[in-house]
C-alpha cells in the first residue's frame, strides 16, 4: 500500500471589511514577511465555519462570525510541494481583545483599502488574497448551509 497519499491542505480565510478597508495580517513565512487574510488550517473534528471564527480570533484578536461563503479556491504553490483548498467566508466583526496575544508568526494586523491590497500583491502569501477580495467586492455570497458539517 502506498503511504504517500496526496491530500490538499484545507484552510479557511475571513474576509473582514469595515469602512472600505479589509483586515489583513502581516506574518512571517518561509518566503519572508507576507500579507494574508486572517486564515489557517482546519483542525480535526472542527467545522469550516468554526475554524474561520477561531483562526480570525487567534490571528487578529477580533471576534468574527461567518455569515456567508465567498468562495472555494484551489491553489498549488509554484514549488509544487503543497496544494491548498481554501474556504473563504464573509461575516460580522465582533469585539476586539486588546489583551490577546496573536498567534506565533503573526507580526501585526493591518486595515487596507482594496487599492492598497492590489498594490501589494508581491507581498501576498498567495494569489488567493487578492482573488478573495475581488470576489467579496463583487458581492459573491453563498449561504452557509452550502457547507455541511456532520459530527460522528
Describe it.
The chain has helices spanning 48-60, 114-119, 128-137, and strands at 9-15, 17-18, 21-29, 32-36, 39-41, 62-76, 83-96, 106-112, 142-143. By secondary structure, the chain is α+β, with helices and mostly antiparallel strands. It has one domain: Nucleoside Triphosphate Pyrophosphohydrolase (Alpha-Beta Complex). Strands 5-1-7-6-9 form a 5-stranded mixed sheet, sandwiched between helices. Strands 2, 3, 4 and 8 form a 4-stranded antiparallel sheet that branches. The longest helix has 13 residues, at 48-60. It starts with 8 loop residues before the first strand and ends in a 9-residue tail after the last strand. 28% of the residues are buried. Keywords: Hydrolase, Magnesium.
Give a nutshell description of this structure.
Its EC number is 3.6.1.-. By secondary structure, this protein is α+β, with helices and mostly antiparallel strands.
Largest sheet: 5 strands, mixed
Note the beta-strand portion. Answer: 35-45%
The average pLDDT score comes to: 95
Label the structural class: alpha+beta
Order of helices and strands: EEEEEHEEEHHE
In the CATH hierarchy, the third-tier topology is known as: Nucleoside Triphosphate Pyrophosphohydrolase
Instruction: Please report the total strand number as a whole number.
Output: 9
The name of the CATH superfamily reads Nucleoside Triphosphate Pyrophosphohydrolase
In whole angstroms, how far apart are the ends? 27 Å
Shape: globular
Amino acid at each position: 500500500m502506498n503511504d504517500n497519499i496526496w491530500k490538499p491542505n484545507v484552510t479557511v480565510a475571513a474576509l473582514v471589511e469595515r469602512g472600505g478597508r479589509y483586515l489583513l495580517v502581516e506574518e512571517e513565512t518561509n518566503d519572508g514577511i507576507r500579507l494574508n487574510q486572517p486564515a489557517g488550517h482546519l483542525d480535526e473534528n472542527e467545522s469550516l465555519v468554526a475554524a474561520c471564527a477561531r483562526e480570525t480570533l487567534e490571528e487578529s484578536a477580533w471576534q468574527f462570525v461567518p455569515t456567508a461563503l465567498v468562495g472555494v479556491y484551489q491553489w498549488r504553490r509554484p514549488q509544487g510541494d503543497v496544494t491548498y483548498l481554501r474556504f473563504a467566508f464573509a461575516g460580522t466583526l465582533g469585539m476586539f481583545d486588546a489583551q490577546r496575544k496573536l498567534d506565533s508568526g503573526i507580526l501585526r494586523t493591518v486595515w487596507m483599502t482594496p487599492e492598497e491590497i492590489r498594490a501589494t500583491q508581491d507581498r501576498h502569501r498567495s494569489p488567493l488574497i487578492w482573488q478573495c477580495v475581488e470576489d467579496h467586492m463583487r458581492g459573491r455570497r453563498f449561504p452557509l448551509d452550502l457547507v455541511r458539517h456532520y459530527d460522528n
